[in-house]
Each structure stands twice: as C-alpha cells, then as structure tokens.
Specification:
mainly alpha
Length: about 240
C-alpha cells in the first residue's frame, strides 16, 4: 500500500507562514538572552557554530535526498541560489568569526532572506521536507546574523555596505561562470523566469540585471539605516 501525503498549500498570512516566523523570533530572542547571561565567550562561539551546522546540514541532506529519490536537475536544483549558497558557507563564518565576513553577510542575509520570509516561495507546504528546509535556512540565517549583532556586538559601517555590494558582484561573476559551464540560469542571469515576477517590470535582458543591481543599493542603505541612527544616538549622548 502506498502512503500518500497531501501537503497543505502555503498561503501568505496563513498559520503555515506565521508560526515558523513567531517560533524563530522567540527562539532567537531566548538564545541571545540566555547566551548573554549564562555563556562565557567559548560557549557563545560553540552555540552559534552548532546552529550554523544545523542550517548547513539541513541543506546538504535535502539535496542528497532529492538526488536519490527525486527528479533532480543539476541545471536548476543545485544549492546555488543566494540563501542556500550562504547556508552552505555559514559554518565557515561562525568558526572564524571574522569581521569582514560579518560585513558581507549582514547585508546578504537580511536583504536576501527578508523577502523570502515575507513572501515565501515553497513548492510543497507543511509537512514536506522542502517546507522545513526553507524555514530552517531563511530564519536560521537571520538568527545567526542577529546573534552576532546582539551577542558578539558586531556592527556594520558605511564601508561595510560597499564591501558587501562588491562581494555580491563576485558572487554574480561566479554564477555567470557556472551558468556557462552547466548551461543553466542560476540567479536568472541568462533570462527571466518563465512565470510572472518582479523582473518583468525591469525590461528585457540584460537591462533587468542592471536595474536589479541598482535597486540593491537603496536596499542595503535601508538595512544600514538603523545602525547609523543608533550610532548617531550613542554619539549624541556621549557628547552631552
């Protein structure tokens, strides 16, 4: 007898959408609070490194599972889209904890995951593997970067914004090379997606790529704005 699992369709604003966000927000808050109160530096480093490995292993297991039991397509399904790509690399960041890595990843993670959290794109809803993989990656990455902000007290500067922007061009260059080698279309650098998307308003190739790059600048500035305001507030209090 075949076991048939019917996945509930995920809609924006549904319990499938809201519950993971609430759970992750509570988890991140408690983790930060507990770490600051109870952990020494070594324990803080171990805790966030283990969380990073949970995120990365989730992605690896998901793709291995699909390679073995699903119709896996190397031209479309490799974990090369930005959030999955970061998820594979995040244990490197949590191991070395270099400030230049934080500068790059802060803008990549917040800018790249927030849209996915607000308007999730999940083929199969709860309780599919893809559903859990999606939320572990997106909400897990946000938890990691906020841990570095509120536990390790790392803060970006305006220079960090441009470092992250230039590093993003390196990622785009890597995707161009891999698209050429695989005859693929990762990051939609060769053509727009077949389905309707925001890129439809940005013109045809290659203009939609240029417009998309320009939009990243105000997005990164918006991400940096709270840090700038907070820094100005601290400086004002220190001078009075």
């Amino acid at each position: 007898m075949w076991l048939i699992i019917v996945y509930a369709r995920l809609t924006i604003g549904s319990l499938q959408h809201i519950i993971p966000i609430v759970f992750a927000a509570v988890f991140a808050f408690l983790l930060v609070k507990y770490s600051n109160r109870k952990f020494n530096l070594i324990q803080k480093q171990i805790a966030i490194h283990r969380l990073a490995w949970c995120i990365s292993v989730t992605v690896i297991v998901f793709h291995v599972y699909r390679m073995l039991f699903d119709n896996y397509n190397f031209k479309t399904d490799l974990p090369l889209y930005l959030c999955s790509f970061i998820a594979l690399l995040i244990p490197i960041f949590t191991h070395y904890r270099k400030y230049w890595m934080f500068e790059i990843l802060l803008f990549w993670i917040i800018g790249g995951t927030l849209q996915g959290v607000i308007t999730p794109d999940i083929a199969n809803g709860f309780p599919s593997f893809d559903y859990f993989r999606y939320w572990v990656v997106h909400l897990g990455l946000l938890s990691v970067i906020f841990y570095f902000i509120y536990v390790f007290k790392m803060r970006p500067t305006l220079k960090s914004l441009f470092k992250s922007l230039f590093a993003l061009q390196g990622y785009v260059g890597l995707m161009i090379l891999l698209n050429y080698l695989l005859d693929a279309n990762y990051f939609y650098l060769n053509e727009k997606p077949k389905s309707a998307s925001l890129l439809d308003y940005f013109g045809e190739w290659p203009y939609y790529i240029l417009v998309g790059q320009l939009i990243i600048i105000p997005l990164f500035l918006l991400i940096y704005l709270p840090f700038y305001i907070t820094k100005k507030g601290r400086n004002h209090l220190a001078n009075n």
